[in-house]
From TrEMBL:
Annotated spans, Disordered: 1-20, 459-485
Requisite cofactors: pyridoxal 5'-phosphate
Family that this chain belongs to: Belongs to the class-III pyridoxal-phosphate-dependent aminotransferase family.
Organism annotation: Streptomyces camponoticapitis
Enzyme class, UniProt record, top EC level: transferase
E.C. no: 2.6.1.76
InterPro entries: Aminotrans_3, Aminotrans_3_PPA_site, Dat, PyrdxlP-dep_Trfase, PyrdxlP-dep_Trfase_major, PyrdxlP-dep_Trfase_small
Biased composition (Low complexity): 459-475
Protein name: Diaminobutyrate--2-oxoglutarate transaminase
Length: 485
C-alpha cells in the first residue's frame, strides 16, 4: 500500500512493527465475524477531531466516525471536559438504573432536543447500551401495548443484530446463515422502501414512492393479504447501512397516515440519523411526522455507549422490570451525551451538516459526467452515499446501471491508501458511504473530496481490466456486522 507523504506524521513509522504484530494477533484471536478490522488494517493510537493516527504514525481522515457515533469527532474538548468533570466529582460510574444527577441532566438535555409535540407526552426508557437493544425494547413495548405480535419493516432496513432487530433487518447475507433468519424475534412483513435508483417497482422517482405507499396500504387492507394486524411499523427516515437512502418526506407522511388510520404504532429508528446528522436534529423532523416511538443510540452518548427509546406515554403499559439490563446506568455516557447534545444545539451543527452535506453532494453529483462509475449520489446532510456501478453494464428500466461491488471495494482501498477511511454499504456493498463528524472543517471536506475523487478515477482506470470481480455481485461483508443490505 502506498501512503502519500502528507499522511505520514513527524513520528514516521517507528512503530510499524508493533502495528503488524498487533494486527496479526487480532487476526489469529478474534472471531471471524470481525468486520471493520478487515477493511481497515490499521492500529489507531491517537485521534483528534476527524483525524486518526496509527501506531505507525500514519494519519487518516475518518469519514466513518464510529458508524455515525462521533458527531463531534474524536476526543472533542467538550466530551473530554465532561469526562474529567464527572470522574473528578466522585459520581458512581455504575448504579444500575438508579436516579442520578447525570441521568436527570441527560434526560433534560435529550427532551430539549425533541419536537415539542412529542416531548410533551414523552417517556424515556434507558436500554442496554446498544442500538439493537433499544430496537428490541421498542418492539417489545409495542407488542405489550397492542397485544399483537407482527412487525412491519422495510427492504434495505438495518436495525441491529439481536433476534427481533435482526428479523426486522433487510440484509439477507446476515440472516441466511442463521437458521430461521432471526425469525425468533417475531413475524415480520417486509414492505418496499422507496429507493429511486433501484426502485422495487422498476419505475423510480416520485412514482416509485407513490407505488410503495399504495402497496403498503392495500396490503394491510387486503383480507387475503396474509398480514395480521401488526404491533408496529419500524422505519428509518434515511437508511444508513442500506446505502444512505433518504425516504421522501411525503412517503414518510403517508406511512404516518396509514399507520395512524389503522391504529398501528409507528417507531422511527434514529440510531444513525439522530443528533443533527441529516441536517435536522432528528431526521423524522424533515417530514413533520410525529412518531409514537423513537429509537436512539450512537451519537446520544457523545462517543460512549448509550441507548434509549422515547415514546408516547399512552404506550407505557410495561410492568416494572419489563425491559431490564445491567448496563442501563452508564454515568459517564450520560455526562458526555448531555454535553454533546447541548453542543450540537448551541453550535448549530445540524444546520452546518445541512450546508456542508449539500456542498459535498453537489460536488460529487458534478463528477458523474467525468466519472461514470458514479451511478448515484444521494443522502441527507452528512449522511451521503455514492453508488458505484458498472458504467458499461446495461441500463435498467430506471436508467440505472448494474452494481459494481468489486470496483467499490477498490475505491475504498484507494481511499485508505490516500489516508481516508470510509465504509461501504447498500446492496452488495456497492455504495461508498460518507459519515464525517458534524464538526468537519471546509478544508477537511475538500480533502475528502480530493482523495475520494482520485480513488474513483484510479478505480475507473482499472475497472475495465478487472470486470470479472463485479460479476459475482459478491456479498462481501461490509459494516459493523457484514451487513451489506
Ligand atoms: C438504524 C440503526 N438501527 C440500529 C442499529 C444497531 O445499533 P448497534 O450497532 O449499536 O446495536 C444501527 C447500527 O448501525 C443502525 O444504523
Amino acid at each position: 500500500m502506498t501512503v502519500p507523504a502528507a499522511t505520514l506524521s513527524a513520528s514516521g513509522s517507528d512503530n510499524a512493527g508493533d502495528a503488524d504484530s498487533i494486527l496479526e494477533r487480532q487476526r489469529a484471536r478474534e472471531s471471524s465475524a470481525r468486520t471493520y478490522a478487515r477493511s481497515f488494517p490499521i492500529v489507531p493510537a491517537r485521534a483528534h477531531g476527524m483525524t486518526i493516527e496509527g501506531t505507525d504514525g500514519r494519519r487518516y481522515l475518518d469519514c466513518l466516525s464510529g458508524a455515525g457515533t462521533l458527531a463531534l469527532g474524536h476526543n472533542h474538548p467538550v466530551v473530554r471536559e465532561a469526562l474529567r468533570r464527572t470522574i473528578d466529582s466522585g459520581a458512581p460510574l455504575h448504579v444500575l438504573d438508579l436516579a442520578t444527577p447525570e441521568k436527570d441532566d441527560f434526560t433534560d438535555a435529550l427532551f430539549e432536543t425533541l419536537p415539542k409535540e412529542f416531548a410533551d407526552r414523552a417517556r424515556v426508557h434507558f436500554c442496554g447500551p446498544a442500538g439493537t437493544d433499544a430496537v428490541e425494547a421498542a418492539l417489545k413495548l409495542m407488542q405489550t401495548a397492542t397485544g399483537r405480535r407482527g412487525v412491519l419493516a422495510f427492504t434495505g432496513a438495518y436495525h441491529g443484530m439481536t433476534a427481533g432487530a435482526l428479523a426486522a433487518t433487510g440484509s439477507v447475507a446476515v440472516k441466511e446463515p442463521v437458521p430461521g433468519g432471526g425469525a425468533a424475534g417475531g413475524e415480520v412483513t417486509r414492505l418496499p422502501y422507496p429507493y429511486a435508483y433501484r426502485c422495487p417497482f422498476g419505475v423510480g422517482g416520485e412514482r416509485g414512492a407513490e407505488l410503495a405507499a399504495t402497496y403498503t396500504e392495500r396490503l394491510l387492507d387486503d383480507p387475503s393479504g396474509g398480514v395480521v394486524r401488526p404491533a408496529a411499523m419500524i422505519v428509518e427516515a434515511v437508511q444508513g447501512e442500506g446505502g444512505a437512502v433518504p425516504a421522501p418526506d411525503g412517503w414518510l407522511r403517508e406511512m404516518r397516515r396509514i399507520t395512524r388510520e389503522r391504529d398501528i404504532p409507528l417507531i422511527v429508528d434514529e440510531v444513525q440519523t439522530g443528533v443533527g446528522r441529516t441536517g435536522a436534529y432528528w431526521a423524522v423532523e424533515h417530514s413533520g411526522v410525529v412518531p409514537d416511538a423513537m429509537v436512539m443510540s450512537k451519537a446520544i452518548g457523545g462517543g460512549l455507549p448509550l441507548a434509549v427509546i422515547v415514546y408516547d406515554r399512552d404506550y407505557d403499559g410495561w410492568l416494572p422490570g419489563a425491559h431490564t439490563g445491567t448496563f442501563r446506568g452508564n454515568t459517564l455516557a450520560m455526562a458526555t451525551g448531555a454535553a454533546t447534545l447541548r453542543y450540537v444545539t448551541r453550535e448549530g451543527l445540524a444546520e452546518r451538516a445541512a450546508t456542508v452535506g449539500a456542498r459535498l453532494t453537489a460536488r460529487l453529483e458534478g463528477l458523474r459526467s467525468e466519472l461514470p462509475l458514479i451511478g448515484d449520489v444521494r443522502g441527507r446532510g452528512l449522511m451521503i452515499g455514492v453508488e458505484i456501478v458498472d458504467p458499461e453494464g446495461p441500463l435498467d428500466s430506471c436508467g440505472s446501471r448494474p452494481v459494481a461491488p468489486g470496483t467499490a471495494a477498490r475505491v475504498q482501498e484507494g481511499c485508505l491508501a490516500r489516508g481516508l477511511i470510509l465504509e461501504l454499504g447498500g446492496r452488495f456493498g456497492s455504495t461508498v458511504r460518507l459519515l464525517p463528524p458534524l464538526v468537519i472543517t471546509d478544508e477537511e471536506a475538500e480533502s475528502v473530496l480530493e482523495r475520494l475523487t482520485e480513488a474513483i478515477a484510479e478505480a475507473s482506470a482499472s475497472a475495465t481490466s478487472s470486470k470479472e470481480s463485479n460479476v459475482s455481485k459478491s456479498s462481501r461483508p461490509t459494516g459493523v456486522s457484514g451487513r451489506a443490505a
